[in-house]
Amino acid sequence: MRHEEKVWDRFSGLYDKIIKKDEQAYDVMIKKMAATIDRHDKVLEIATGTGIIALSLSETLENITAIDFSEKMIAIARRKAEKIRNEKIQFEVQDACNMNFQDNQFDVVIISNALHIMPDPERVLSEIKRVLKNDGRLIAPTFMHKKSKNAKLFSKLAALVGFKAYHEWDEKRYCAFLGENGFNNVNSTILKSSFNIAYATAILEDLNV
Question: Is residue 4 pLDDT above 90, yes or no?
Answer without folding.
Answer: no
